[in-house]
């Protein structure tokens, strides 16, 4: 159900509040139609992707679970590319800059996007061991004095007419509060839309008729939720609720009364999705696929230019389903993604390692689905280019490695945005890997690290904006002409 924000009465319905106000719905419908015209010049877009519980970035001589040796000790570091000379332990090679790096297990999932990828090593949160608390700062300044970078960019973009200035979507099934997007200092966490159909309705209110949903109206889930609230209400509360329902019915009738008129080159359609999937862990990949489809369509239609896509929550003790051996011979799933990240699932050291690795592959595959969606679309302003040419996808996690729960050497890759942002992916066609530790602003027993807020300040500069963060010296080598 949609969550009530005000105790004892009908409050704002979180990310679903757009259902309740006839004036705002009418305004959004008008805004949606304004996105249709072709616009002159490219407009940089950015999507921040956060994958839960780390991506296995460390190779620091640790043994396997129970102290047993690994079959292949090198594969403990399964994310960062390397150059073949330095080996996988490139953590101690600050300044390393490699065109066409070798990709290990996780980054190899993204091989189709290698030519548009820049892998970065040497980043850190404010401390080396923020642990699961990293969700509070992984997308903003270490002191948590400011909003997250997605919200800042969305608010600061000039001449930015959008249905939503900074979309926040994804899927969490556990640790509901561990959302990575913030609207200000402290902990004012932003609402997150997890229902793909409600996300669609919020971004395309003028396309929300039954003709686009096979007879089902995207307002139906909200209508059902609101009707359930009637039980136990006072007469005054009931009267307020009835007025809201009347407003929704009127908007619904207005939307269904005439033909849908999609903008030129933009034909938003509802993805396949059923409400029952939200309670079924076996359908998590399908929920996220539907969400990424809506998000890519919104970017392609000009309904937004900024988004955050969160896949899972830190320390999320729920299942992700996969075939760990790829041949049906092993258990179908890990019953606890967080425990798998700690290598606590499976029998014996090798199986524990495989369960850990394949649970991480599951997360990266959700990213790949989003990239596939972005690559299929044309850019709304430069239709001869793909949407991915003008959309920078920045990928990280709140942890570096889920097993030791470290916050140094976080996974980081930037993909796309080569034409609008000037992402520096190297001179060849094989992608690039850099170690930015030599530009570090903090030093400890491990070496130098670049604080994540400087990465975000640099991303903001690629869009012509000032992040306002305390550490704002740009990191050189990421974007052409910056730093």
Provide the fold topology.
Elements: H1 22-34, E1 45-51, E2 97-99, H2 105-108, E3 117-121, E4 123-124, H3 149-156, E5 167-171, H4 196-203, H5 220-228, H6 235-256, H7 284-301, E6 306-311, E7 320-321, E8 333-334, H8 337-341, H9 348-376, E9 391-396, E10 413-415, E11 432-435, E12 442-444, E13 447-451, H10 452-462
Précis, in short:
This protein is an alpha/beta fold. It has helices at residues 22-34, 105-108, 149-156, 196-203, 220-228, 235-256, 284-301, 337-341, 348-376, 452-462; strands spanning 45-51, 97-99, 117-121, 123-124, 167-171, 306-311, 320-321, 333-334, 391-396, 413-415, 432-435, 442-444, 447-451. It has ten helices and 13 strands.
Structural description of this entry:
The protein has 483 residues and is α/β, with parallel strands linked by helices. 26% of the residues lie in helices and 11% in strands. The chain has helices at residues 22-34, 105-108, 149-156, 196-203, 220-228, 235-256, 284-301, 337-341, 348-376, 452-462; strands at 45-51, 97-99, 117-121, 123-124, 167-171, 306-311, 320-321, 333-334, 391-396, 413-415, 432-435, 442-444, 447-451. The strands form three sheets. It has an eight-stranded mixed beta sheet, with helices on both faces. Strands 4-13-12 form a three-stranded mixed beta sheet. The chain has a two-stranded antiparallel ribbon with strand order 7-8. Strand 12 (442-444) and strand 13 (447-451) form a beta hairpin. The longest helix has 29 residues, at 348-376. The radius of gyration is 23 Å and the shape is globular. The chain starts with 21 loop residues before the first helix and ends in a 21-residue tail after the last helix.
């Amino acid at each position: 159900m949609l969550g009530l924000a005000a105790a004892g009465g009908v409050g704002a319905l979180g990310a679903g509040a757009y259902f309740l106000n006839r004036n705002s719905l009418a305004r959004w419908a008008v805004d949606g139609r304004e996105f249709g015209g072709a616009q002159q010049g490219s407009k940089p877009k950015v999507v921040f992707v956060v994958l839960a519980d780390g991506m296995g970035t460390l190779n620091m001589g640790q043994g396997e679970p129970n102290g047993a040796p690994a079959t292949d000790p090198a594969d403990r570091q399964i994310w960062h590319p390397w150059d073949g000379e330095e080996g996988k332990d490139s953590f101690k090679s600050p300044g390393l800059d490699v065109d066409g790096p070798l990709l290990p297990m996780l980054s190899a999932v993204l091989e189709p996007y290698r030519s548009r990828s820049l892998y970065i090593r040497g980043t850190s949160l404010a401390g080396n061991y923020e642990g699961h608390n990293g969700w509070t700062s992984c997308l903003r300044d270490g002191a948590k004095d400011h909003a997250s970078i997605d919200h800042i960019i969305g608010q600061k973009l000039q001449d930015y007419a959008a249905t939503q200035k900074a979309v926040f979507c994804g899927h969490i099934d556990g640790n509901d509060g561990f959302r990575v997007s913030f609207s200000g200092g402290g902990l004012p966490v932003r609402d997150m839309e997890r229902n793909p159909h409600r996300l669609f309705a919020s971004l395309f209110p003028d396309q929300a008729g039954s003709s686009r949903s096979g007879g089902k109206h995207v307002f139906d889930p909200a209508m059902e939720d609101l009707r359930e609230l009637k039980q136990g209400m006072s007469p005054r509360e009931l009267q307020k609720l009835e007025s809201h329902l009347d407003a929704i019915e009127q908007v619904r009738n207005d939307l269904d009364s005439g033909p849908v008129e999609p903008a030129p080159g933009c034909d938003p359609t509802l993805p396949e999705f059923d409400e029952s999937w939200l309670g079924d862990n076996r359908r998590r990949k399908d929920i996220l696929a539907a969400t990424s489809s809506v998000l890519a369509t919104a970017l392609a239609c000009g309904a937004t230019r900024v988004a955050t896509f969160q896949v899972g929550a830190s320390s999320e003790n729920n299942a992700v389903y996969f075939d760990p051996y790829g041949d049906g011979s092993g258990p179908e799933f890990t019953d606890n993604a967080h425990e798998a990240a700690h290598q606590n699932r499976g029998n014996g050291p090798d199986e524990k390692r495989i369960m850990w690795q394949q649970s991480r592959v599951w997360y990266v595959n959700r990213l790949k689905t989003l990239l596939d969606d972005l690559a299929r679309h044309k850019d709304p302003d430069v239709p001869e280019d793909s949407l991915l040419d003008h959309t920078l996808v920045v990928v990280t996690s709140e942890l570096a490695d889920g097993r030791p729960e470290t916050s140094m050497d976080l996974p980081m890759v930037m993909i796309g945005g080569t034409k609008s942002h000037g992402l520096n992916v190297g001179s060849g066609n094989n992608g690039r890997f850099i170690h930015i530790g030599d530009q570090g602003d903090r030093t400890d027993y491990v070496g130098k690290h670049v604080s994540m807020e400087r990465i975000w300040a640099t991303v903001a500069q690629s869009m012509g904006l000032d992040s306002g963060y305390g550490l704002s010296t740009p990191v050189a080598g990421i974007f052409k002409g910056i730093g």
